[in-house]
Amino acid sequence: MNYKETKAPVSTVTYDREAIEASTDNIYEAISIIAKRATQINSDLKKELVDKLDEFATYNDSLEEVFENKEQIEVSKFYERLPKPTAIAVEEWLSDKIYHRSTTDKKK
Fold first, then answer.
1. Which one of 7, 26, 70, 107 is most buried, counting C-beta atoms within 10 A?
2. Which domain of life is it from (predicted)?
3. Which stretches does DSSP call E strand in 18-108?
């Protein structure tokens, strides 16, 4: 999924509790699902950032020279400006883009 084109807010937003718990009827279950998705998004973004920064890596044994690469700084700043993984996960949850299922049988 392309997280760079998300409409998630960059700053803090207050959400309607009823909208978040609407599909599960349990706020704790909804938050648990959102948290697991945020963890997935965070690991995806971290892997992508590390892969991009590895292109700029120089493997020298001496610590005498430190190079400042403008492209590397721009890549880092771009990822810092992205919305937080939790904001992206909440936006996906409210847009019904997260698939979830209950493992407990509610029919007794």
1. 26
2. Bacteria
3. none
